[in-house]
Amino acid sequence: MKAVGLFRYLPVADPRAFVDVDIAEPELRGRDLLVSVRAVSVNPVDTKVRSPRSGEEREPRVLGWDASGVVERTGPDCTIFKPGDEVYYAGSIVRPGCNSELHLVDERIVGRKPASLSFAQAAALPLTAITGWEALFDQMKIAADGADSGRTLLVIGGAGGAGSIAIQLAKKIARLSVIATASREESREWCRSLGADLVVDHTKDIVSQIRSSGIENVDYVYCTNSIEEHLGAIAEIVAPKGRVCSIVGGGSGVNVGSLFDKSASFSWELMFTRPRYQTGDMIEQHRLLDRVSELVDQGVLRTTLREVITPLNAENLRKAHGLIESGHTVGKIVLEGFA
After folding, report:
1. Which ranges of 66-198 does DSSP label H, i.e. alpha helix?
2. Is the Cβ–Cβ distance between 269 and 246 less than 8 Å?
3. Which of these three, 268, 288, 310, is where a domain ends?
């Protein structure tokens, strides 16, 4: 079957960064689904895994952790899906990715594709929807039934894929007041269109911009980019007893002790944790994605797709990675169909 893989970890401008390959069809086991992939989305995690470093793969390594498609076959222990079902999912970081014609994924982390969306529109959602849902409702304990209505969330990096769905979840589901950060007019307008009540520029003083609007502190902070860069502002603007969640791992420069004075809580969110460690509650990602699908079909949430590139091949995957690495993408980039 056709796939896009890598043998070496090279700069995206290098034509050898990705190659078109033919690989063997994977073998079904347990609760695996064999999915015919129709569209995939590219995320910062893809670029981080591909980023230049030493080492070479003996067999092509296939990346990709956001997909939509159709179930071709099911493993012997599957109980949720059947052949012909349309699905969407983010997969597992410790298994081969979805940049291939056929892909294996555990059904417990797969959702039913929103019926109202195309495959490309659906592929833009899974990874960031899981991340946002877990960050807001699991890690920061924001009520998903609107019980925290009126409280304030700051989304640092509002125009990217993660921020785009988080704004919607916070506004439409939790009914919070949402502040987003964005530095360009295009990205600011995108955040407003998704429901942000206030947009500030993260390349300038975030705290002074928020306070000049009459808001002294925020109850929650969702950081989707450099926690090192923004921790000082976060510690200053978060309310006493507030909650902070970062989806970007930090280095030795991250000292969350700056939150101590306010008794603010800090947590990390990585949506790959459940499938990576085969946690007993893996099925929650299936339920989460099904709930998001329902909300999309009800018109509550919308896709965050902004650009579709066809077909899915090595050249176009390099292009998509380059766009992500530029740091200026708005919404999500999706690749659709094999040539």
Report:
1. 119-123, 126-133, 161-168, 185-194
2. yes
3. 268
